[in-house]
Amino acid sequence: MINILIFSPHPDDAEISIGGFILLHANEYKIKIINLSAGEHSSNGDKIERLKESKFVENRYKNISTKCLFFEDANIQHTVIDQQKRIIRIIREYTPGVILTSHYTDEHPDHLESYLLVKNAIYKAGLNIYPELGEQHTCKHVFFYSQNLYNGKGSMFIDISSVIEEKLNILSKYRSQLIQDNSRVKTYSNTRIFQKVLAKDKYCGSLINTDYAEEIISYKKITIKNIFDIVF
Ligand SMILES: [Zn+2]
Question: What InterPro entries does the entry give (predicted)?
Fold first, then answer.
């Protein structure tokens, strides 16, 4: 059984945006990260290298596992029925309580497509359609993560101060994408990503009076059962 299912357009996206969230929940819950593509068209790193890097979290934390669906990098498309069906099958197989995926405000077109693709597949996974893909499963808790600050309707913040160092350690394992090395093509990711992550997480922390925080986004209205459960 998987408690939290996370869709990541490319290996490293989930960890960049919500690596702290993942670490905090991995103490208690089973987490599966589904990489929709292997990111084979990036400036650095081939499919094999990128897949190997994505396995670091699986090898290090017993409650985290990963899987790649090998959709073509830079060609994730929410209108492609085969891609929809693959996601629906995954949701029905793992029956998660919580699903997260990338947010539409990200710049990369695959991130926008992943938002639409996963959001639509979540809805369809709960419908009486495609019985060959498994039993219907409705996941009520759906959230999104973004590389840039959204801070709009539905934004929530989680204090990740206790795990920020480990989050950065995980990011450092994505060497082909995020680490400066003279043998690689210089990119935004391998020159500025650590600055960006630290700046965003520190700023999110300042919004809730902690050192570091991450934002997750709900598109639904949030209902509370007990007002004392809200943390300020
Ligand atoms: Zn990406």
Answer: GlcNAc_PI_deacetylase-related (IPR003737), LmbE-like_dom_sf (IPR024078)
